[in-house]
């Protein structure tokens, strides 16, 4: 079971949430308009450097991440998963950052549910600034330069196969365009859970229109995590 983080587990984009630590809870004009220069990952590096200059430190970031609300029904989905831990291997693939994700998952009491978290490396430097790096490099033309989730997922499944772990099926819960790329690699045994009305959902619908049958996984759109839990629960009965 693969989760995305921003606007999937949590109800916001955590990169936007950190702006609450800035003076007046806003970024200066120059940072708001330079997102186009280079990648989004590089834009966030500049944002974090600016926040560091303003005196924002680990405790401030931690407080913001911990207080990001969970998406509706996510708590129920996590309760279901913790009751059925022996049936699911849970991983998280996110283009956010490691520090923020771990802070939130710990605060929500669900960190131990995740076998592995894949995200951009982040740490505090000597000055106490939160720094961010790219996750990896890849050749996928559809994904941002710092992360292709399909590459991460296929490599993870290959690695688990070498360890002789065989999954009956893969479930993918996401919302964004970067979640569409890995979901295209799913098979007919697998299930994609795109968040209703978000880019991943629209892209699966467009693909189905243009190339019927090309998207192999079963598509189950969701608005609340309880719908995902209910679907998994039904599946366990069969």
UniProtKB/TrEMBL annotation:
<feature type="active site" description="Nucleophile">
    <location>
        <position position="4"/>
    </location>
</feature>
<feature type="binding site">
    <location>
        <position position="95"/>
    </location>
    <ligand>
        <name>substrate</name>
    </ligand>
</feature>
<dbReference type="GO" id="GO:1903561">
    <property type="term" value="C:extracellular vesicle"/>
</dbReference>
<dbReference type="InterPro" id="IPR023214">
    <property type="entry name" value="HAD_sf"/>
</dbReference>
<keyword id="KW-0460">Magnesium</keyword>
<dbReference type="Pfam" id="PF06888">
    <property type="entry name" value="Put_Phosphatase"/>
</dbReference>
<dbReference type="GO" id="GO:0016791">
    <property type="term" value="F:phosphatase activity"/>
</dbReference>
<dbReference type="InterPro" id="IPR006384">
    <property type="entry name" value="HAD_hydro_PyrdxlP_Pase-like"/>
</dbReference>
<keyword id="KW-0495">Mineral balance</keyword>
<feature type="binding site">
    <location>
        <position position="15"/>
    </location>
    <ligand>
        <name>substrate</name>
    </ligand>
</feature>
<feature type="binding site">
    <location>
        <position position="175"/>
    </location>
    <ligand>
        <name>Mg(2+)</name>
    </ligand>
</feature>
<protein>
    <recommendedName>
        <fullName>Phosphoethanolamine/phosphocholine phosphatase</fullName>
        <ecNumber>3.1.3.75</ecNumber>
    </recommendedName>
</protein>
<dbReference type="InterPro" id="IPR036412">
    <property type="entry name" value="HAD-like_sf"/>
</dbReference>
<feature type="active site" description="Proton donor">
    <location>
        <position position="6"/>
    </location>
</feature>
<feature type="binding site">
    <location>
        <position position="6"/>
    </location>
    <ligand>
        <name>Mg(2+)</name>
    </ligand>
</feature>
<dbReference type="InterPro" id="IPR016965">
    <property type="entry name" value="Pase_PHOSPHO-typ"/>
</dbReference>
<keyword id="KW-0378">Hydrolase</keyword>
<comment type="similarity">
    <text>Belongs to the HAD-like hydrolase superfamily. PHOSPHO family.</text>
</comment>
<dbReference type="GO" id="GO:0046872">
    <property type="term" value="F:metal ion binding"/>
</dbReference>
<dbReference type="GO" id="GO:0030500">
    <property type="term" value="P:regulation of bone mineralization"/>
</dbReference>
<keyword id="KW-0479">Metal-binding</keyword>
<dbReference type="GO" id="GO:0035630">
    <property type="term" value="P:bone mineralization involved in bone maturation"/>
</dbReference>
<feature type="binding site">
    <location>
        <position position="4"/>
    </location>
    <ligand>
        <name>Mg(2+)</name>
    </ligand>
</feature>
């Amino acid at each position: 079971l693969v989760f995305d983080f921003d606007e999937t587990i949590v109800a916001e984009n955590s990169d936007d949430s950190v702006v609450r630590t800035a003076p007046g809870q806003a970024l200066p004009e120059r940072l708001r308009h330079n997102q186009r220069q280079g990648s989004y990952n590089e834009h966030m590096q500049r944002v974090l450097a600016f926040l560091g200059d303003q005196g924002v430190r680990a405790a401030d970031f931690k407080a913001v991440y911990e207080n990001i609300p969970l998406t509706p029904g996510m708590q129920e989905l996590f309760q279901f998963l913790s009751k059925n831990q022996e049936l699911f291997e849970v991983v998280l693939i996110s283009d956010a950052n490691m520090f923020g994700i771990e802070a939130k998952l710990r605060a929500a009491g669900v960190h131990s549910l995740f076998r592995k978290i894949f995200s951009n490396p982040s740490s505090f430097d000597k000055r106490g600034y939160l720094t961010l790096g790219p996750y990896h490099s890849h050749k996928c033309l559809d994904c941002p330069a710092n992360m292709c989730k399909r590459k991460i997922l296929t490599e993870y499944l290959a690695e688990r196969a070498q360890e002789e772990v065989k999954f009956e099926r893969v479930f993918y819960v996401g919302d964004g365009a970067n979640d569409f790329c890995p979901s295209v690699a799913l098979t007919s045994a697998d299930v994609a859970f795109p968040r209703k009305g978000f880019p991943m959902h629209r892209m699966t619908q467009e693909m189905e229109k243009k190339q019927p049958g090309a998207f192999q996984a079963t598509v189950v759109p969701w608005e609340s995590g309880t719908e995902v839990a209910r679907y998994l629960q039904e599946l366990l009965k069969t």
